[in-house]
């Protein structure tokens, strides 16, 4: 039996603290709840935030004796791309999704997985400091002046990919810039960012999606490895948490990922209808 390769979702940009790991964990858990088989590789050996989150989650599950759906998670600490691809092949066997979390710096393995992504997710905070990683804007007009090295890299990778996509039967790369930790920049700054992002997305070909708002709960959940989706295990939830859960669902939907077909229901022998039985037994239904 042949397995199709898992869909690779890569969380990457070259800056720390933009929410790559937090978003990666939440997306992985959301997909698991939807019935997908999910594996995850943490390329950030030093911080290994995603892997730590998964460990905390497993500990909570065994301590409380509860079932917590989530990804099968490993760290990559090898030293060659071949080793990484071997881990990908092993861990990805029979999986629907393979999620990669990457360190916030230029790193050869992060670069490799980014160029091989089926879906590349780049979280950025609402600030021109983060925007700079994708493109530089003019100081007076806020018009985009030039693309960053990273945007050029992905642009080239996508071009190469679209040439080989048909031959290799691979998907085109979908690049989604996710605005994370929103809600604390002023309206004028927001407008300028919207404009610059809109202009850049047309030039580079990414989509812009709304990510997670700035909420303390995302930091608080880390030690337990729980997420907002773990209903019934979080205690009393305020309205703001319900809004946050919805926000997360919207984010996952906006990634437009190929969900596995649900298992077909078992085939049951056809039931005789009540009317049919009544006819046979001569009784009124
Ligand atoms: N939406 C959010 N609201 C509040 N805090 C957040 C949010 N997203 C991330 N954080 C916090 O910001 C810090 C950096 O996030 P992290 O996901 O580790 O970023 P990265 O992986 O890009 O370095 C962490 O302390 C994390 O808990
Ligand atoms: Mg991280």
Q: What are the salient characteristics of this protein?
A:
10 helices, single chain, disordered C terminus, two-stranded antiparallel sheet, seven-stranded parallel beta sheet, alpha/beta, globular, binds adenosine-5'-diphosphate, Rossmann fold, binds magnesium ion, 42% helix, 285 residues
**Tertiary shape:** globular
Radius of gyration: 22 Å
Q: What is the CATH topology assignment? A: Rossmann fold
**Could you say which structural class the secondary elements and strand pairing correspond to?**
alpha/beta
Tell me the helix content. 40-55%
| Mean pLDDT reading | 87
What's the architecture in CATH terms?
3-Layer(aba) Sandwich
**How many DSSP E strands?**
9
- Given as residue ranges, the uncertain stretches (5+ residues, pLDDT < 50) are 272-285
Within the largest sheet, what's the order of strands?
3-2-4-1-5-8-9
**End-to-end span in angstroms?**
49 Å
Query: Main beta sheet: strand number and arrangement?
Result: 7 strands, parallel
Percent range for β-strand residues:
15-25%
Bound molecules: adenosine-5'-diphosphate, magnesium ion
* Domain module tally: 1
CATH superfamily: P-loop containing nucleotide triphosphate hydrolases
CATH classification class: Alpha Beta
SSE order, as H and E?
EHEHEHEHEHEEHEHEHHH
Given the structure, what is the number of helices? 10
